[in-house]
Write a structure and sequence with these properties.
It is a single chain. With 94 residues, this protein is α/β, with parallel strands linked by helices. The chain has one domain. The chain is built from two helices and six strands; from the N terminus they run ααββββββ. The chain has helices at residues 2-11, 13-36, and strands at residues 40-41, 46-48, 52-54, 62-63, 68-70, 85-87. The radius of gyration is 15 Å and the shape is elongated. The termini are far apart.
C-alpha cells in the first residue's frame, strides 16, 4: 500500500495530496456520518472533505460500496466549490 502512495505521489502529486488528506479525515468522517448522523456506510468509502448531513429522525440513509464524496474543490476534477448535502426531509424517506 505504501508503494502505491509513493507511485501516486511521483506520477500525480495533486492526487497524492488529496489521498493523504482523505486518509487523515477518514476516522472523523466515519464518526460524523455513522455515529453522529446515523448513516449506514458500505465498505471502502472515501470522504474528501465532510459533507453537510441532515437526517430526519426516523428516516434511513444507506450509502453503498466504494462511495466517494468529493466535497473540496481541489479534489474534484471539474472544480465544484460547494459542499455536498446528504439529507432526508421526512421520516418515511430511505
Amino acid at each position: 500500500m505504501i508503494l502505491r502512495y509513493i507511485k501516486l505521489a511521483i506520477d500525480t502529486p495533486w492526487k497524492a495530496f488529496d489521498e493523504i488528506k482523505m486518509q487523515t479525515i477518514k476516522p472523523l468522517a466515519y464518526i460524523y456520518a455513522r455515529i453522529l448522523s446515523g448513516i449506514k456506510l458500505g465498505d471502502s468509502f472515501k470522504f474528501y472533505g465532510l459533507p453537510k448531513i441532515y437526517r430526519h429522525r426516523g428516516s434511513k440513509i444507506t450509502i453503498g460500496e466504494r462511495f466517494e464524496n468529493r466535497n473540496q474543490w481541489h479534489s474534484n476534477p471539474i472544480g465544484i466549490n460547494h459542499p455536498t448535502i446528504i439529507c432526508t426531509w421526512t421520516k418515511e424517506k430511505k
